[in-house]
Design brief:
With 373 residues, the protein is an alpha+beta fold. It has seven helices and 21 strands. The strands form five sheets. Strands 15, 16, 17, 18, 19, 20 and 21 form a seven-stranded mixed beta sheet that branches. A five-stranded antiparallel beta sheet has the order 6-7-4-10-11, with no helix packed on it. Strands 1-3-8-5 form a four-stranded antiparallel beta sheet, with no helix packed on it. It is elongated.
Length: 373
Protein backbone atom coordinates (compact mmCIF):
# COMPACT_ATOMS: atom_id res chain seq x y z
CA UNK A 1 0.00 0.00 0.00
CA UNK A 2 2.83 2.39 0.82
CA UNK A 3 4.41 1.68 -2.54
CA UNK A 4 1.13 2.43 -4.30
CA UNK A 5 0.79 5.72 -2.42
CA UNK A 6 4.39 6.64 -3.30
CA UNK A 7 3.76 5.87 -6.96
CA UNK A 8 0.58 7.93 -6.93
CA UNK A 9 2.38 10.83 -5.25
CA UNK A 10 5.15 10.66 -7.83
CA UNK A 11 2.63 10.63 -10.66
CA UNK A 12 0.84 13.65 -9.19
CA UNK A 13 4.12 15.52 -8.81
CA UNK A 14 5.30 14.46 -12.26
CA UNK A 15 2.08 15.39 -14.04
CA UNK A 16 1.70 18.57 -12.02
CA UNK A 17 5.17 19.90 -12.73
CA UNK A 18 4.82 18.86 -16.38
CA UNK A 19 1.60 20.87 -16.72
CA UNK A 20 3.08 23.85 -14.89
CA UNK A 21 6.24 23.93 -16.98
CA UNK A 22 4.39 23.37 -20.26
CA UNK A 23 2.13 26.34 -19.51
CA UNK A 24 4.50 28.73 -17.79
CA UNK A 25 8.12 27.95 -18.74
CA UNK A 26 8.40 30.75 -21.33
CA UNK A 27 6.26 33.33 -19.55
CA UNK A 28 8.36 36.27 -18.43
CA UNK A 29 11.37 34.70 -20.13
CA UNK A 30 13.35 36.93 -22.51
CA UNK A 31 16.62 36.68 -24.37
CA UNK A 32 18.69 39.62 -25.60
CA UNK A 33 21.44 38.41 -27.93
CA UNK A 34 23.45 41.14 -29.60
CA UNK A 35 26.85 42.15 -30.90
CA UNK A 36 28.77 44.54 -28.67
CA UNK A 37 29.62 46.71 -31.71
CA UNK A 38 27.92 47.54 -34.99
CA UNK A 39 31.03 48.33 -37.05
CA UNK A 40 34.50 46.79 -36.92
CA UNK A 41 37.65 46.63 -39.02
CA UNK A 42 39.31 43.33 -39.86
CA UNK A 43 41.40 42.26 -36.89
CA UNK A 44 39.31 44.14 -34.32
CA UNK A 45 38.14 42.35 -31.18
CA UNK A 46 34.56 42.49 -29.98
CA UNK A 47 31.95 40.16 -28.56
CA UNK A 48 28.39 38.91 -28.28
CA UNK A 49 26.43 39.48 -25.09
CA UNK A 50 23.77 36.96 -24.02
CA UNK A 51 21.26 38.34 -21.50
CA UNK A 52 18.56 36.03 -20.16
CA UNK A 53 15.86 37.40 -17.87
CA UNK A 54 13.39 35.16 -16.00
CA UNK A 55 10.57 37.37 -14.63
CA UNK A 56 8.63 34.70 -12.74
CA UNK A 57 9.05 32.50 -9.70
CA UNK A 58 9.42 29.28 -11.68
CA UNK A 59 13.10 28.29 -11.96
CA UNK A 60 14.65 26.97 -15.16
CA UNK A 61 17.42 24.72 -13.97
CA UNK A 62 18.26 23.46 -17.45
CA UNK A 63 18.14 26.08 -20.18
CA UNK A 64 20.05 26.21 -23.46
CA UNK A 65 20.61 29.15 -25.81
CA UNK A 66 21.30 28.06 -29.38
CA UNK A 67 22.35 30.34 -32.22
CA UNK A 68 24.45 30.50 -35.39
CA UNK A 69 26.67 33.17 -36.86
CA UNK A 70 29.55 33.55 -39.32
CA UNK A 71 32.54 31.25 -38.95
CA UNK A 72 34.87 34.16 -39.78
CA UNK A 73 34.16 35.53 -36.30
CA UNK A 74 36.87 33.67 -34.40
CA UNK A 75 35.66 33.06 -30.84
CA UNK A 76 38.11 32.59 -28.00
CA UNK A 77 36.14 29.80 -26.31
CA UNK A 78 34.63 26.98 -28.39
CA UNK A 79 33.69 24.46 -25.71
CA UNK A 80 29.99 24.61 -26.60
CA UNK A 81 30.42 25.25 -30.31
CA UNK A 82 30.49 23.37 -33.60
CA UNK A 83 32.05 24.98 -36.67
CA UNK A 84 30.85 23.94 -40.13
CA UNK A 85 29.93 26.45 -42.83
CA UNK A 86 28.70 28.52 -39.89
CA UNK A 87 29.57 28.88 -36.24
CA UNK A 88 26.91 27.05 -34.19
CA UNK A 89 26.75 27.55 -30.45
CA UNK A 90 24.78 25.82 -27.68
CA UNK A 91 25.28 27.52 -24.30
CA UNK A 92 23.84 25.95 -21.14
CA UNK A 93 22.33 28.11 -18.38
CA UNK A 94 20.58 27.61 -15.07
CA UNK A 95 18.44 30.51 -13.91
CA UNK A 96 16.31 30.81 -10.81
CA UNK A 97 13.07 32.72 -10.56
CA UNK A 98 13.17 36.52 -10.95
CA UNK A 99 16.80 36.53 -11.96
CA UNK A 100 18.94 37.81 -14.85
CA UNK A 101 22.05 36.11 -16.24
CA UNK A 102 24.57 37.87 -18.50
CA UNK A 103 27.33 36.09 -20.42
CA UNK A 104 29.88 37.61 -22.81
CA UNK A 105 31.51 35.77 -25.70
CA UNK A 106 34.67 37.34 -27.15
CA UNK A 107 35.75 37.05 -30.79
CA UNK A 108 38.10 38.52 -33.37
CA UNK A 109 36.79 39.63 -36.79
CA UNK A 110 38.85 37.83 -39.44
CA UNK A 111 37.00 38.73 -42.66
CA UNK A 112 34.92 41.59 -44.00
CA UNK A 113 31.19 41.21 -44.39
CA UNK A 114 27.74 41.89 -42.99
CA UNK A 115 26.97 39.30 -40.34
CA UNK A 116 23.87 38.28 -38.41
CA UNK A 117 22.91 36.07 -35.48
CA UNK A 118 20.46 33.51 -36.79
CA UNK A 119 18.60 30.34 -35.77
CA UNK A 120 18.17 31.63 -32.21
CA UNK A 121 16.37 29.18 -29.93
CA UNK A 122 15.67 28.80 -26.24
CA UNK A 123 15.36 25.20 -25.07
CA UNK A 124 14.42 24.24 -21.52
CA UNK A 125 13.59 21.12 -19.54
CA UNK A 126 11.08 20.73 -16.73
CA UNK A 127 12.19 20.27 -13.13
CA UNK A 128 12.42 16.48 -13.47
CA UNK A 129 14.14 16.82 -16.86
CA UNK A 130 11.57 14.60 -18.51
CA UNK A 131 10.17 17.05 -21.07
CA UNK A 132 11.90 19.48 -23.42
CA UNK A 133 10.37 22.77 -24.51
CA UNK A 134 11.62 24.99 -27.33
CA UNK A 135 11.03 28.55 -28.44
CA UNK A 136 12.36 30.31 -31.54
CA UNK A 137 13.47 33.88 -30.85
CA UNK A 138 13.48 36.63 -33.46
CA UNK A 139 16.80 38.45 -33.60
CA UNK A 140 17.73 41.67 -35.44
CA UNK A 141 21.42 41.86 -34.45
CA UNK A 142 23.91 42.70 -37.19
CA UNK A 143 27.59 43.47 -37.52
CA UNK A 144 29.54 45.16 -40.32
CA UNK A 145 33.20 44.24 -40.67
CA UNK A 146 34.84 46.75 -43.00
CA UNK A 147 37.56 45.89 -45.54
CA UNK A 148 41.17 46.05 -44.46
CA UNK A 149 42.98 49.34 -45.10
CA UNK A 150 46.26 48.58 -46.87
CA UNK A 151 49.71 50.06 -46.49
CA UNK A 152 51.56 49.34 -49.72
CA UNK A 153 54.28 51.40 -51.39
CA UNK A 154 53.07 50.64 -54.91
CA UNK A 155 49.50 51.55 -54.01
CA UNK A 156 50.58 54.74 -52.21
CA UNK A 157 52.60 55.80 -55.25
CA UNK A 158 49.62 55.44 -57.59
CA UNK A 159 47.25 57.28 -55.24
CA UNK A 160 49.73 60.12 -54.68
CA UNK A 161 50.15 60.44 -58.44
CA UNK A 162 46.40 60.56 -58.93
CA UNK A 163 46.03 63.25 -56.28
CA UNK A 164 48.72 65.36 -57.94
CA UNK A 165 46.93 64.97 -61.26
CA UNK A 166 43.58 65.87 -59.72
CA UNK A 167 44.82 69.00 -57.99
CA UNK A 168 46.51 70.19 -61.19
CA UNK A 169 43.19 70.11 -63.03
CA UNK A 170 42.07 73.35 -61.45
CA UNK A 171 38.67 74.91 -62.00
CA UNK A 172 37.49 78.49 -61.90
CA UNK A 173 35.56 77.99 -58.69
CA UNK A 174 37.11 78.95 -55.33
CA UNK A 175 36.99 76.56 -52.43
CA UNK A 176 35.08 78.24 -49.53
CA UNK A 177 37.09 76.15 -47.04
CA UNK A 178 40.51 77.18 -48.40
CA UNK A 179 40.95 80.75 -47.09
CA UNK A 180 44.12 82.43 -48.35
CA UNK A 181 43.85 86.12 -47.39
CA UNK A 182 42.12 89.48 -47.88
CA UNK A 183 41.97 92.14 -50.59
CA UNK A 184 40.04 95.34 -51.27
CA UNK A 185 36.57 95.09 -52.74
CA UNK A 186 36.18 95.18 -56.54
CA UNK A 187 33.04 95.69 -58.58
CA UNK A 188 31.42 92.33 -59.15
CA UNK A 189 32.59 90.70 -55.92
CA UNK A 190 29.69 88.86 -54.24
CA UNK A 191 28.32 90.49 -51.12
CA UNK A 192 28.77 87.30 -49.10
CA UNK A 193 32.55 87.48 -49.62
CA UNK A 194 32.82 90.79 -47.71
CA UNK A 195 34.72 90.43 -44.44
CA UNK A 196 32.94 92.94 -42.20
CA UNK A 197 35.37 92.62 -39.30
CA UNK A 198 38.34 93.42 -41.56
CA UNK A 199 36.36 96.25 -43.19
CA UNK A 200 35.78 97.82 -39.76
CA UNK A 201 39.54 97.97 -39.22
CA UNK A 202 40.29 99.50 -42.64
CA UNK A 203 39.12 102.45 -44.68
CA UNK A 204 37.96 100.25 -47.58
CA UNK A 205 35.66 97.30 -48.03
CA UNK A 206 37.66 94.07 -47.64
CA UNK A 207 36.72 90.71 -49.11
CA UNK A 208 37.90 87.18 -48.37
CA UNK A 209 40.13 85.49 -50.93
CA UNK A 210 40.00 81.71 -51.33
CA UNK A 211 42.32 79.25 -53.00
CA UNK A 212 41.15 77.73 -56.24
CA UNK A 213 40.98 73.99 -55.97
CA UNK A 214 40.16 71.13 -58.24
CA UNK A 215 36.50 70.33 -58.68
CA UNK A 216 37.56 66.87 -59.73
CA UNK A 217 35.85 63.64 -58.75
CA UNK A 218 36.94 60.01 -58.63
CA UNK A 219 34.97 57.00 -59.78
CA UNK A 220 36.32 53.75 -58.36
CA UNK A 221 35.24 50.77 -60.45
CA UNK A 222 36.02 47.36 -58.95
CA UNK A 223 36.17 44.21 -61.08
CA UNK A 224 36.04 40.93 -59.13
CA UNK A 225 36.72 38.71 -62.14
CA UNK A 226 39.87 36.60 -61.51
CA UNK A 227 42.74 36.69 -63.96
CA UNK A 228 43.78 33.15 -62.99
CA UNK A 229 42.26 30.50 -60.74
CA UNK A 230 45.01 30.78 -58.11
CA UNK A 231 43.84 32.17 -54.74
CA UNK A 232 40.70 33.64 -56.32
CA UNK A 233 39.00 34.65 -53.05
CA UNK A 234 42.21 36.17 -51.68
CA UNK A 235 42.74 38.34 -54.77
CA UNK A 236 39.09 39.43 -54.80
CA UNK A 237 39.38 40.50 -51.18
CA UNK A 238 42.56 42.38 -52.07
CA UNK A 239 40.68 44.28 -54.81
CA UNK A 240 37.98 45.28 -52.31
CA UNK A 241 40.61 46.38 -49.77
CA UNK A 242 42.38 48.46 -52.42
CA UNK A 243 39.09 50.17 -53.29
CA UNK A 244 38.35 50.90 -49.62
CA UNK A 245 41.86 52.25 -49.06
CA UNK A 246 41.67 54.46 -52.15
CA UNK A 247 38.25 55.81 -51.21
CA UNK A 248 39.49 56.75 -47.73
CA UNK A 249 42.56 58.41 -49.22
CA UNK A 250 40.59 60.65 -51.58
CA UNK A 251 37.94 61.46 -48.99
CA UNK A 252 40.72 62.51 -46.61
CA UNK A 253 41.72 64.98 -49.32
CA UNK A 254 38.13 66.22 -49.78
CA UNK A 255 37.70 64.73 -53.23
CA UNK A 256 34.22 63.34 -53.96
CA UNK A 257 34.19 59.59 -54.54
CA UNK A 258 31.76 57.25 -56.26
CA UNK A 259 32.25 53.48 -56.14
CA UNK A 260 30.80 50.57 -58.06
CA UNK A 261 31.69 46.89 -58.29
CA UNK A 262 30.53 43.94 -60.36
CA UNK A 263 29.58 42.08 -57.19
CA UNK A 264 26.15 41.28 -55.85
CA UNK A 265 24.89 43.08 -52.76
CA UNK A 266 24.07 40.77 -49.84
CA UNK A 267 20.83 42.61 -49.03
CA UNK A 268 19.38 43.40 -52.46
CA UNK A 269 20.93 40.61 -54.52
CA UNK A 270 21.69 43.17 -57.24
CA UNK A 271 24.72 45.08 -58.47
CA UNK A 272 24.55 48.27 -56.44
CA UNK A 273 26.76 51.36 -56.26
CA UNK A 274 27.41 54.37 -54.04
CA UNK A 275 27.03 57.78 -55.67
CA UNK A 276 29.40 60.72 -55.25
CA UNK A 277 29.99 62.15 -51.82
CA UNK A 278 32.80 63.68 -49.80
CA UNK A 279 31.53 63.86 -46.21
CA UNK A 280 32.73 61.89 -43.24
CA UNK A 281 29.52 59.90 -43.37
CA UNK A 282 30.25 59.00 -46.99
CA UNK A 283 33.35 57.05 -45.92
CA UNK A 284 31.03 54.99 -43.73
CA UNK A 285 28.61 54.45 -46.60
CA UNK A 286 31.38 53.27 -48.94
CA UNK A 287 32.76 50.75 -46.44
CA UNK A 288 29.28 49.42 -45.65
CA UNK A 289 28.69 48.92 -49.37
CA UNK A 290 32.00 47.11 -49.81
CA UNK A 291 31.34 44.93 -46.75
CA UNK A 292 28.06 43.72 -48.29
CA UNK A 293 29.55 42.57 -51.60
CA UNK A 294 29.22 38.81 -52.05
CA UNK A 295 29.90 36.92 -55.26
CA UNK A 296 31.31 38.08 -58.58
CA UNK A 297 28.71 39.04 -61.21
CA UNK A 298 31.12 38.31 -64.08
CA UNK A 299 33.33 40.19 -66.52
CA UNK A 300 30.48 40.85 -68.96
CA UNK A 301 28.62 42.91 -66.37
CA UNK A 302 31.76 44.92 -65.67
CA UNK A 303 32.31 45.61 -69.37
CA UNK A 304 28.70 46.85 -69.55
CA UNK A 305 29.52 49.37 -66.83
CA UNK A 306 32.53 50.61 -68.81
CA UNK A 307 30.44 51.00 -71.96
CA UNK A 308 28.03 53.19 -70.01
CA UNK A 309 30.90 55.36 -68.81
CA UNK A 310 32.08 56.02 -72.37
CA UNK A 311 28.84 57.93 -73.03
CA UNK A 312 29.29 60.11 -69.93
CA UNK A 313 30.43 63.59 -71.03
CA UNK A 314 31.65 64.60 -67.55
CA UNK A 315 35.23 65.85 -67.99
CA UNK A 316 35.85 66.34 -64.26
CA UNK A 317 35.89 62.64 -63.39
CA UNK A 318 39.00 60.52 -63.04
CA UNK A 319 38.55 56.76 -63.10
CA UNK A 320 40.34 54.30 -60.85
CA UNK A 321 39.89 50.75 -62.11
CA UNK A 322 40.75 48.07 -59.56
CA UNK A 323 40.96 44.68 -61.24
CA UNK A 324 43.17 41.62 -61.11
CA UNK A 325 41.66 40.70 -64.46
CA UNK A 326 43.61 42.46 -67.20
CA UNK A 327 43.03 40.45 -70.36
CA UNK A 328 42.56 41.87 -73.83
CA UNK A 329 38.76 42.29 -73.79
CA UNK A 330 38.89 44.50 -70.69
CA UNK A 331 41.94 46.46 -71.81
CA UNK A 332 40.31 47.13 -75.20
CA UNK A 333 37.38 48.79 -73.42
CA UNK A 334 39.72 50.87 -71.27
CA UNK A 335 41.71 51.85 -74.37
CA UNK A 336 38.47 53.05 -75.93
CA UNK A 337 37.68 55.12 -72.84
CA UNK A 338 41.17 56.65 -72.95
CA UNK A 339 40.73 57.49 -76.64
CA UNK A 340 37.51 59.30 -75.72
CA UNK A 341 39.48 61.53 -73.36
CA UNK A 342 38.75 59.73 -70.10
CA UNK A 343 41.40 60.07 -67.42
CA UNK A 344 42.11 56.49 -66.32
CA UNK A 345 44.25 54.78 -63.72
CA UNK A 346 44.23 51.04 -63.24
CA UNK A 347 45.59 49.04 -60.31
CA UNK A 348 46.19 45.33 -60.91
CA UNK A 349 46.93 43.24 -57.81
CA UNK A 350 48.93 40.14 -58.69
CA UNK A 351 50.58 37.36 -56.73
CA UNK A 352 54.33 37.54 -56.32
CA UNK A 353 54.65 34.16 -58.06
CA UNK A 354 52.90 35.46 -61.18
CA UNK A 355 54.20 38.87 -62.16
CA UNK A 356 52.43 41.55 -64.16
CA UNK A 357 53.60 43.53 -67.17
CA UNK A 358 52.65 47.19 -67.35
CA UNK A 359 51.33 46.88 -70.87
CA UNK A 360 49.35 50.12 -70.82
CA UNK A 361 50.42 53.57 -69.63
CA UNK A 362 47.46 53.69 -67.24
CA UNK A 363 48.07 50.19 -65.81
CA UNK A 364 49.94 49.87 -62.51
CA UNK A 365 50.75 46.49 -61.01
CA UNK A 366 50.62 45.91 -57.26
CA UNK A 367 52.44 42.83 -55.97
CA UNK A 368 50.85 40.92 -53.11
CA UNK A 369 52.36 37.98 -51.27
CA UNK A 370 51.00 34.47 -51.69
CA UNK A 371 49.91 33.42 -48.21
CA UNK A 372 48.62 30.14 -46.84
CA UNK A 373 45.10 31.32 -46.01
Amino acid sequence: MEILIAVLCFLVIYLGQTVIYRKYWDQGLSLDLDFDDRYLEIGDKSGITETITNRKMLPLTTLHVKFSTARSLQFQENENAVVTDFYHRNDPFSIMGNRKVVRKLSFTAKERGLFFISAVKLMAKDFLMSKTFALSVENQAFLYVFPEKLSNIQLDTVLDGMLGDLTSRRSLFPDPFAFSGLRTYSVGDPRKSINWKATARCDDLMVNVYEHTAEQRVKILVCLEPNTMIRVHYIQEMCISIASTAASYFLDNRIPVMIRANGYDLLSGEMEWVDFGSSGEHRFTVDKYLARITENAGIDRFVEVLKQEVTDVDSNTTYLIVSAYHKKDLLDELDHMAEKGKNIYMIVPYLNIQGCDDIRPYLHGMEVELNDT
